[in-house]
């Protein structure tokens, strides 16, 4: 019998398949993630809302379609992502645990998929190094949303110099804690929030020095072997 030729994929399927098989998706995810999170704060007063909605959709789609290879995990992540997008569009539950919970669950699943892809065995590429950077940002986002959830469950858990903290203040505290900057303008006062902050500070110290340091060392060894072989 004559073997059947492989099915011809459309442009969208071919693009998704290529991103799944290559590490380029990790590099694409970094600017989308930054643009839809920390870099969006000062730009929200300058650009229309639909720009950030577009970035959020792009980040969610890339996170589900490309970065989560396991079908069951992708289905669960997609369900949370769909909930996040629907709640954002209709405005239901804004500023409550109804909105924060699914978003935290989605980014936690994406972070787990990122970690599995970045630290899997195989050749270390620049894309995988950028994926480690994206994972570092995802950790900051997850902790920021966890602080928001704690502050919603126990109002006053996080405070600023001017009083109660807003969701943006909670996210700001997350990144200043993760990077061990600690400006002190937003502080946790509830014991559970302090425990989260302590764990994040430890992660902020260990992640760049141990995990990213390991990737960089392996990357340098790979480059040296390629140079010697040539």
What is the strand arrangement across the widest sheet?
Answer: 2-1-3
Provide the CATH top-level class. Answer: Mainly Alpha
- Unreliable residue runs: none
Query: What overall geometry do the principal axes of the alpha carbons give?
Result: globular
- Rg calc: 20 Å
Average pLDDT: 78
Note the run of SSEs as H and E. Answer: HHHHHHHEEHEH
Portion in helices: over 70%
- Care to count the β-strands? 3
CATH topology term: Helix Hairpins
User: Architecture, CATH level 2?
Assistant: Orthogonal Bundle
Instruction: Report the span from N to C terminus.
Output: 45 Å
Task: Write a structural description.
With 230 residues, the chain is mostly helical. The chain has one domain: Helix Hairpins. The chain is 72% helix and 3% strand. It contains nine helices and three strands; from the N terminus they run αααααααββαβα. A three-stranded antiparallel beta sheet has the order 2-1-3. α5 runs antiparallel to α6, α6 packs antiparallel against α7 and α7 packs across α8. It is globular and about 50 Å long. 31% of the residues are buried. The model has no long low-confidence stretch (mean pLDDT 78).
Q: Brief overview, please?
A:
The protein is built from 9 helices and 3 strands. The chain has 230 residues and is mainly α.
Characteristics:
globular; 3 strands; three-stranded antiparallel beta sheet; 72% helix; 230 residues; Helix Hairpins; mainly alpha; single chain; 9 helices
